[in-house]
Amino acid sequence: MKTRKRTFLITLIIALVVAGGSLGALSVRHKEATGSPFRTVAVKRSDLVAMIGATGTVEPEEVVDVGAQVAGQISSFGKDKNGKPIDYGSVVDEGTVLAQIDDSLYTADVNSAQAAMQQAEANLVSSDANVAQSKAKLDQAQQDWDRAQKLGPSEALAPSAYDQYKANYEVAKATLAVSQAAVDQAKATVAQANAALYRAQRNLGYCTIKSPVKGVIIDRRVNIGQTVVSSLNAPSLFLIAKDLRRVQVWVSVNEADIGNIHPDQPVTFTVDAFPNQTFVGQVGKVRLNAAMTQNVVTYTVEVNTDNPDGKLLPYLTANVHFETGRRQNVLVVPNAALRWSPQPSQVASQFRKGEDSGGALTQTAQSEGSQQGPPQHWGTVWTQEGEFVRPLKVSVGLTDGTMTEVQSQDLTQDLPVVMGEQSQQAANAAGSGTSPFLPQLRRSRPAGSQGGAPPAPGGR
Fold this sequence. Notes:
The chain is α+β, with helices and mostly antiparallel strands. Among the domains are: 38-48 and 330-432, no CATH class; 62-102 and 207-240, CATH 2.40.50.100; 105-206. It has helices spanning 2-32, 104-151, 159-206, 335-339, 363-370, 424-432, and strands spanning 38-42, 44-60, 63-67, 72-77, 91-92, 97-101, 208-210, 215-220, 227-228, 236-241, 246-254, 266-271, 274-286, 291-293, 296-306, 317-334, 377-385, 388-399, 403-407, 416-421. The strands form 4 sheets. The chain has a 6-stranded antiparallel β-barrel. A hairpin with a 2-residue loop joins strand 17 (377-385) and strand 18 (388-399). Helix 2 runs antiparallel to helix 3 (159-206). The chain is elongated and about 185 Å long.
């Protein structure tokens, strides 16, 4: 029994020694097989859409601010289409009563104006009667004066009586003129009283506040019992949106980007209330009244969009993207590939001209770019050549902020281009085919060396 146990222990120790040697050899090979020191990515074909980002606010396409034209206390609210008191979100028709102002004082003004109107009309009637009376007295005076003229001053008619008939005639004419003037004055008084009555009636009518349009109440700014004071500016009581099925997004665009914005330009945007839904619209107009905030000039751009289901509520914050360009099936590389520049020692020897430029375009590439006819934007990407890199001059096109369109005769799909350098641990892992994040095995020392496996029991 002891012999079997001893044999088993010897076999186990030999197996551990062999395994340790194998792991040591594997570790040596792992150390010697280092991977590429560069991080590369393959050139690919893709569709590219360039955007300008900005922030805006959802606004109703057309709003009406309903105010009060008279002062007074709000006594009650009207009813909406569903018979409920007017409130936020109430749907109203044109002419719907929104609120009622206490009209007791204005009713008294109407009554007073009506009384003044009746008095003016009575004065007019009296003036007309005075004219008729004056005409009758004038006719009598005319007849007396005519008879006096036929008789003349004589023994039959004393001179004093002659003069009296003449004076009576002149006075009757003047009295008629005065009576006729009083009629004109009475007519003017009637017109003035009529205007005062009309004004009082209109003020009384203003106590009933009605909706001027069909729409939705998006803001109610008064409560029952609150007193509104009408002055030079009518106080705002309700804000009505005519049609929330069409809304606008008012976007503040930086002056550096406003040159790329034009009417009918496609727009996409999102709102925080529905983060997983993208809405579409188009530019309506660019307002010319720029605003300056902390020396930054911005322009307001109106974006029109449909809102058939009413999801877009007024005054939501919108994250807007203006589409400035679109390319389909073009070669693209990450922007990092265009920004990266190698050290002179990393460039292949045949491309090391102008090493003082720190790895920028070689002099040959720069001269070739300057000889091109139409102006283009040029850049450089680097592809690996053994342990070094070599430059590829490319024409830079549209960018979406992450990927950029590039064109070159030497550039093909799936060609790896350098994005940067990777750490030594990542390079070793790339060469060994293992992940740098996995735990590394220690290399075992060979049997018989210092600190190696103990000798077999019994000296065997």
